[in-house]
Queue: 2 jobs
Job 1
Amino acid sequence: RFGLAEEADQVGVVTGLAWTSVGGDLLSIEALRLPGKGRMKTTGKLGDVMKESIDAASSYVRSIAPEIGVKPPQFEKWDIHVHVPEGATPKDGPSAGLAMVTSIVSVLTGIPVKKDIAMTGEVTLRGNALAIGGLKEKLLAALRGGIKTVLIPQENEKDLREIPDNVKEGLTIIPVSHVSEVLEHALVRKPEAVEWDEVAEEAAAQALAKGAGGPGAAAH
Amino acid sequence: RFGLAEEADQVGVVTGLAWTSVGGDLLSIEALRLPGKGRMKTTGKLGDVMKESIDAASSYVRSIAPEIGVKPPQFEKWDIHVHVPEGATPKDGPSAGLAMVTSIVSVLTGIPVKKDIAMTGEVTLRGNALAIGGLKEKLLAALRGGIKTVLIPQENEKDLREIPDNVKEGLTIIPVSHVSEVLEHALVRKPEAVEWDEVAEEAAAQALAKGAGGPGAAAH
Amino acid sequence: RFGLAEEADQVGVVTGLAWTSVGGDLLSIEALRLPGKGRMKTTGKLGDVMKESIDAASSYVRSIAPEIGVKPPQFEKWDIHVHVPEGATPKDGPSAGLAMVTSIVSVLTGIPVKKDIAMTGEVTLRGNALAIGGLKEKLLAALRGGIKTVLIPQENEKDLREIPDNVKEGLTIIPVSHVSEVLEHALVRKPEAVEWDEVAEEAAAQALAKGAGGPGAAAH
Amino acid sequence: RFGLAEEADQVGVVTGLAWTSVGGDLLSIEALRLPGKGRMKTTGKLGDVMKESIDAASSYVRSIAPEIGVKPPQFEKWDIHVHVPEGATPKDGPSAGLAMVTSIVSVLTGIPVKKDIAMTGEVTLRGNALAIGGLKEKLLAALRGGIKTVLIPQENEKDLREIPDNVKEGLTIIPVSHVSEVLEHALVRKPEAVEWDEVAEEAAAQALAKGAGGPGAAAH
Amino acid sequence: RFGLAEEADQVGVVTGLAWTSVGGDLLSIEALRLPGKGRMKTTGKLGDVMKESIDAASSYVRSIAPEIGVKPPQFEKWDIHVHVPEGATPKDGPSAGLAMVTSIVSVLTGIPVKKDIAMTGEVTLRGNALAIGGLKEKLLAALRGGIKTVLIPQENEKDLREIPDNVKEGLTIIPVSHVSEVLEHALVRKPEAVEWDEVAEEAAAQALAKGAGGPGAAAH
Amino acid sequence: RFGLAEEADQVGVVTGLAWTSVGGDLLSIEALRLPGKGRMKTTGKLGDVMKESIDAASSYVRSIAPEIGVKPPQFEKWDIHVHVPEGATPKDGPSAGLAMVTSIVSVLTGIPVKKDIAMTGEVTLRGNALAIGGLKEKLLAALRGGIKTVLIPQENEKDLREIPDNVKEGLTIIPVSHVSEVLEHALVRKPEAVEWDEVAEEAAAQALAKGAGGPGAAAH
Ligand SMILES: [Ca+2]
Ligand SMILES: [Ca+2]
Ligand SMILES: [Ca+2]
Ligand SMILES: [Ca+2]
Ligand SMILES: [Ca+2]
Ligand SMILES: [Ca+2]
Ligand SMILES: [Ca+2]
Ligand SMILES: [Ca+2]
Ligand SMILES: [Ca+2]
Ligand SMILES: [Ca+2]
Ligand SMILES: [Ca+2]
Ligand SMILES: [Ca+2]
């Protein structure tokens, strides 16, 4: 089933695009949310740059938590595991950043990812999309694998003129400059924001902590 | 006794299939559940890819915990040790993933694994079975070792036409595409699910925590 | 968008200047403040010297916390992530120290950094600016990238005579000897100090801790 | 004194058998139990495989704790240190597994190990004995060192026909297939089991924890 | 400003003396004390031997804490950061030990270090000064940098006869055999001791801990 | 002062004997006891074998704690730092084990070590002395350094016939087989034992812990 688009919209499963000396390939990215203690685990023979891109993706998602309906303290009660099969194939590079963000958002919100979309693009800590390499090989792999829509960084739009016409006709190619656009295209529905006022929450937590010892005494 | 099927149905002991330059071999995989603190230990001169396949297996099992009768918080009170004898032989690769899942499920549920079954297949975080290499050598080793039934990934079914007839006649070969099928074939009985509502449980835990200080005072 | 000045004043985003064998380049430095536990994360394929320069920058900022309106214990409730895109490009050296300090101060205070300023300079634990190399290449990259103002270490002022006139005319070049000057030039407004008396705070904290058990008894 | 049998029955000291390119040797294995926090320390220039064999031995012993009279939570209140003198000589391999188990059981129970016994054999997580190499050299070293009884894995019994008669006459050689047989032969007396019902104990612990806040209020 | 004496007496900043194949140099050593949890951080591309010399200096200072007015438990409430600019220059060796001690004492006591003094010498865990190499090159660098007074280990006094007269006339060279002499010469004033009776303090702490639960009951 | 005997009886300072390709040398071993959390630190460019010998020495001392007047829980309230100057000289090997034990016992008990004694010998976890190499070179270094008494392992006594007569006449050479003999010869007075009944202490601690919540309620 590898090298092919997913068969159904799934939570936490995103199709990325890889590029190696032997051509492009689809890259299935899987995230899992588990009851835990705020730990992040990554597996799949990932190089340091790809691991760092997961760190950046994770921090970006934490920074927008309330916008996707997650209260920040919740992060300390979940573990997140990001895995990239096939486990024996080495993978590296930052270009799966947008896919990592999408996968993590999907798993945190429980909103499935559309099955016939693929994406490529580095992500910054502010959610901006940065240019990637191997666009042609990646688009060919997407077409071959039955993908319908591909999100690429705005910065790579200029490279589209070198892409063969049949590829551009077989795929809907959407240049994006920010994660917000990615989520809009990739998730089956929009996450709902939750209110979160850091200062107010902290004050409330402290009041509660103090009260644990005090009120009983006052009631005598 | 190595290179031979197990002599009895045992809890936590699963027969995997290894493939090296000198042929196939049976691989005994042992898991142990100990009272502890949620720690995972792996031993047996395992390479990084096999260690990661244990991580993926473990996360997958945690993600289906209620379905096998385990409440998620229970994971923080057990240690799990996965060992692959013989300790001096280096082992690597992702193809023992399904066996790792089976071993961990067996040890968590206390349900024994059938002694004359062997299995091979990479596992994803969603419990899907991925293709492996060395199918012919692995099946030969299974036959030689007295195994009756072998579970292989659905993706490898196409490779069966290259397998000698005597091997296919001596073994029941079952292609599987998901862990659920593996557990059905490998465990001596089906695990019973337990109800688990994450949101409700968390609310209850918080109410209990708050009550520890408060109700006593109110009763005065 | 890389190699160009930022498009807007942003919180936590600072433009540094890099210098390699193939010339100078703009270096976007991003910090993020997250609810957390005092952890510091750094990503972007950073060498050990650049990581240490972030450590030094971070300690310096902690040492002046009250001056920028942050009470020291607050540091144990935030995580800070510093990332330097592009993630596949190795970066090293201490010369981004002043930019690291500025980025961290911006993210802690919520005060944006001016979008058309760039800076280069090592920082000491006392906030002093130390000389850097590659001044000419860095200034050329700044000019090319649309930067208007560049802060350089006072110790490098003597190197300005080797810089072509058109570069010096196209940029406002400001030599600085201390972080205080950097913040004045780079932030859109001055941080407001908060009062912090370590000894008094500690005494208050201890009194509160003791009181948790005591006052109830006294009230009988 | 090295290369010779122990002079007295001691707690935690077991004689193993090593095999190198220059012949066999006695290997003194020492364990110590200290008041602590569940930490395990290993010293003596041990290779990774030998360290893993100590991990496996330790997990096996934890898994049979009640059978040797130790309640599982007790493990979190002790540190165990396993040392293999002579500290400058590198040691490796899994074949000291049975000796490691015996040493740890002895130190946990306080039951001494017979001084004129030696043993060799890998151990699995279920306490099974696996075959080792260098049987002839190891038996020669045992004879030379004044050992009276040697425990070897059942799987190695077939190799006894290649052992010179004088060696077989000078030693009592006992093939074993499980740790239970090893302990019976090596310890001066049998450990007494303690009752331990994991589920019941946990329930009791939780009741106690809850009671700390609650019962007082109920008594008013 | 590097390679020159400090411009003012500063807290936590000490001038050491380095010696490399290209001659001697001044080495600015900076320590910072931050509210924290007893953590020690070191930066500046320091080799393992220099890091260990900071460990030794730190332990020595902890061992004399009451003599410099610091109660030992205070160490668990501070973090200390020792940095040696310039961050891109590798530094190693134990000869900055006395300077490390002085820097840490200065930062803990808040007493400034005299700006025109430099020092070289390894330190032991008892505060003894041990001989160093490169005395001539170090003294030349001190003279060149505007230093007035140099502290050297007593064990190096015999090497002074090989030092040119102009160097010996331009500098006040003081041989020292213990940290106590170093502090007397280097700090602008003597630290005041604080009383500390470990046994009494511990007893008091325990009494307080027990009382937290008890007195309330007694008052009924 | 290095290469010479100590000038006074000191707490925690022991003279060991090193042996390298260029001859023997005195090795000053320093231990320091600090208020802390049970941490052990080692410095002085020590190789892994010497670090492990310190681990073994430390565990042995913990195992005899009551015999030297130290209650075991006390170990969790102290940090111990073992340093071997000169910091730039690499040191390795297990032969300083007896000296490490002596240094740690001295620092824990506050009993000084005799200044004109030196010692060499590996130590086991039971406190036994094992043979060392380079006896001749070590004794020559001891004589040269003004040492009066040298403790050597009993197992090395046979090597004394190869030692020149003038060395044997200039030194009191005492073969020892156990740490108990070492301490008797090296410390200026014998440590006093303290009573310690692990089981009783634990029961008392548990009773206290339970009582913290209970008695108040009972008193109403
Ligand atoms: Ca593929
Ligand atoms: Ca990529
Ligand atoms: Ca085998
Ligand atoms: Ca495999
Ligand atoms: Ca660039
Ligand atoms: Ca730089
Ligand atoms: Ca030997
Ligand atoms: Ca062995
Ligand atoms: Ca310099
Ligand atoms: Ca130096
Ligand atoms: Ca020396
Ligand atoms: Ca030695």
Note: Chain C touches chain A through 28 residues (CB under 8 Å).
Job 2
Amino acid sequence: MALLVQKFGGSSVADVDAIRRVAQRVVATHNRGNDVAVVVSAMGDTTDELLDLAQQVSPQEPPERELDMLLTAGERISMALLAMAIQELGVPARSFTGQQAGMHTDRSFGRARLLDVTPGRVADTLRAGSVAIVAGFQGVSEDEDVTTLGRGGSDTTAVALAAALDADVCEIYTDVDGLYTADPRIVPTASRITRITIEETLEMAAHGAKILHLRAVEYARRFAVPLHVRSSFSDKEGTWILVARPLTAALRRDGSLRPEGTDPHQPEQTTVPPTSGEEPMEDPIISGIAHDKSLGKITAVGVPDRPGAAALVVGAVASVGVSIDMIVQNVSTSAAGMTDISLTLPEADGTAAVAAIRELQHDLGFADVIYTSHIGKLSLVGAGLRSNPQVAHRMFGALAEAAVNIEMISTSEIRISVITDQRDLEDAVRAVHTAFQLDAEDEAVVYGGTGR
Amino acid sequence: MALLVQKFGGSSVADVDAIRRVAQRVVATHNRGNDVAVVVSAMGDTTDELLDLAQQVSPQEPPERELDMLLTAGERISMALLAMAIQELGVPARSFTGQQAGMHTDRSFGRARLLDVTPGRVADTLRAGSVAIVAGFQGVSEDEDVTTLGRGGSDTTAVALAAALDADVCEIYTDVDGLYTADPRIVPTASRITRITIEETLEMAAHGAKILHLRAVEYARRFAVPLHVRSSFSDKEGTWILVARPLTAALRRDGSLRPEGTDPHQPEQTTVPPTSGEEPMEDPIISGIAHDKSLGKITAVGVPDRPGAAALVVGAVASVGVSIDMIVQNVSTSAAGMTDISLTLPEADGTAAVAAIRELQHDLGFADVIYTSHIGKLSLVGAGLRSNPQVAHRMFGALAEAAVNIEMISTSEIRISVITDQRDLEDAVRAVHTAFQLDAEDEAVVYGGTGR
């Protein structure tokens, strides 16, 4: 018996029939002897419809507190209906709002941060043999105002709940059957990743892979929550995202050791995560390719190469509330001791960031600021990349063969990112995917967009 | 300056335009220097749509706790949008759920009773110069579950909030411009009642008048909350429902005496209730005629006329959870000492009540039980009816002239009710209305159904 958190996005509960299917899955999991806590998003387009109503009433900018009050109606509907559907199948179920489930946040309406998670009522409900259903995306502030967690909020709710309940696994149900070696819409032969470390997933999410929200992955990493990303339309296993669990967590709640691998009697219904670290980690293992089309690039040209110059540029951008994606500064090779500082950032923030940097021009004395919208970013993610120069060599070679010019390069221990012209990006993804022999024999199945 | 609670039903907030109109009215009231707390129902058909979803998922009977969770999403949407619309007009506004507004109830999902009302946050919001918006219809149980107050719940919320805030008046906005001397759909010349006592309103509501829910009127009477029932489509005064306020309440919050009557400078925007009891109460004053088509009638025939017989019959009906409308037992005139006991009750409960009474047949030894569905009840309501036999005389005379047979009669201090064949009821209402010269010169304006 395991304790599972199952998260279903908006597309998984889009209508009454979809809710019934989710109920069947939850009941099946419950009837196999597991404790199941479910996290749901709002039904299908509910959030967009509510946002549209808000926009009609407040065309400029709806007040944040009231917008959160409005949007949280969405999960209230889906979770109550799901509880009813589960009870129809003969299993007791109770739904809980963010407040009732103990999702305590700060007061930042629309993008609240979790401060504490105290799911006492959820735990009591599971202990009583019922299914607990928790509203995703929502919390309550210290002064009892309703808050929402912002984009990716329901994933974050699920992971946070799994951490607080010490769940064996947090299953993220979506309309794709796992993480892929590349976006199947661009690389039809992309193959499903069966296992990946949480750090690699973090890099994938941070650099454009859209199935899991970065914030939820960060949360899962910090609290060592194993994730299982899988399709709500099939029983097939999806992608296991494995974490280095603290030793104590390897003990099951009854004191016995966690079994190695999965239960052979239920190969299609594995609920407990496989053990990580089974394969030797010395050879580089490519997990996949992430790409991102949402960025712009700013270059401050001819910056005096002296201590503090980069800090000033970055500080100026940060002071206007813009989050920076990559920062690249090469060594100064010019006789005049000048360098260029480039950074990538969300395209929508380009104008504000450029203005902030321009204000430094007099003090810092750089030559010019250049802004490029519509850049593309391709990131190769895998274990042991930095210690294996062959990987970068093969990657850059593949790009050269595909006649893709590399504008910037940035690397981490487990990631190599390049900036290209956005028009070259899809060709670049396909070329690198093929170069690393990631192509599967069959084409991937894609169902559409994902929920919040 | 006064403190007002304004309640808007579902038809008053049916769409974004309607919400904007409500916002304008609230802001106008606020800008005249009043403190305004607003209670809203769900938008238009939202509740029916949510009920329909629940019915699809749980065709038998949706679980009560989850149904309440579901339905309360409705007010969450309307109140957040209304708060936004008010802020758009430059007035600060905050919305509150039943829980946030301190609406504490018992655990009876779907028909919860208020146990305590502690609107501390609402009072703080008003003190800060903001408009407070409270979700009608909903509360929270001691164990922090979401509850709903059942039919008429939003009216009850408004009256309870007004009582707890010691508001000067609770304004009930609806799609009719007040209480009428009879249902304008049956008597087109029915005239609007300008002032009526709470006791008469109670009789009207209990005997079929549909604008105000009985429970809200009972609450208003117990806590001496003056009500003003008026149209959300016009600025005209509606019907003032006046209560005998405790002496202390005649003092305003600043210690000055409540002014007699209304402010002469704003004849169309009176907010403080006129003083009750200005007119001599010795002559009978007919308030209006209520009618009810939802009842059935049970008669236990040939009941032995001995102590305890009526108690047994009533007890049997009560034991199956059926609420009784009228009970009539005439004096025994038969030689055998037999009498008939008749009672009226909601038509839907007829079968259960008949079965319960039949079980008594052996012990009590009555001859038969007769059930009549589709009866009609007409009630004449007004002050001083019992002490003026002329009223009953004129009423029964008018019915006789209209060839309406009277099947049962029941009276209270301020009401005379007769049971007729349901097919005669509308004729009966018109005949009595005319006999008491209640007809107005113009036809009444009727807009449609009312919200919850």
Note: The two ends of chain A are 30 Å apart (CA to CA).
